[in-house]
Amino acid sequence: MGWIRRQGDAVTFPRGNWVVPMLRGRSREHPLKWMVLWTCLWSQEPLERALRAFDEAANGQVAIESGDQYLLWPDDGKSVRVALPEAVEEAFKTNQTVRGVMETLGVSLGTVRQWMLEHPEFALAWGRRVHLERLVGAKARMNAAIDAEPAMSRSMLLVNCRQEVAWLRTHAPTTLRRVLDRLPSARVPQGELFAD
């Protein structure tokens, strides 16, 4: 793009017989592919207008409306994010797992991961919300078990609430320690080996 600007308003190549050998068999992106595409799309327009439109699109200066083709190079930080469909947002709001989102929408794991990659802020907010909900739920269930059984020991709690304990041990060990500190320790002070 910078080369075109340095050459002036109208760029012409001496012959076109070098284009096909350069692009034949090339699977990776090449700037010339964009030029060929743009030339085909704007073949009925004056050259100056086609170049100006190409320059505006490449620099993100085109007004983008829904349904339009977005920027030519979306990975330059100027790309416009499309909002998630309402059904997808609702599925994420009502499910705490990616599998639940998959089953609700009837889509593959790859599709859900793609949505999360395309919308990292949304995925991060969802992850934080799910983490907080699981934390609060696990803590509440363990506290309820302790309150329901006054003679509850640590080992009984670990058996009765093993899912909550496993999740808290991995994701919130400090919270697990606080809940377990509510229970008396089964350990008794070690007796002296020799009495005076």
Describe this structure in words.
Helices cover 59% and strands 0% of the residues. The longest helix is centred in the last third of the chain and has 29 residues, at 120-148. The model has no long low-confidence stretch (mean pLDDT 77). It folds into two domains: 2-76, no CATH class; 86-180. The chain contains eleven helices and no strands. The termini are far apart.
Number of strands: 0
Supply the number of structural domains: 2
Strand residue percentage: under 5%
This entry's quaternary arrangement is single chain
The SS-based structural class is mainly alpha
> How can the largest sheet be summarized?
none
Shape: elongated
Helical proportion, percent range: 55-70%
Calculate the mean pLDDT score and round it. Answer: 77
H-E string: HHHHHHHHHHH
Alpha-carbon distance between the two ends:
92 Å
Number of helical elements: 11
The stretches of 5 or more residues where confidence is low (pLDDT under 50) are: none
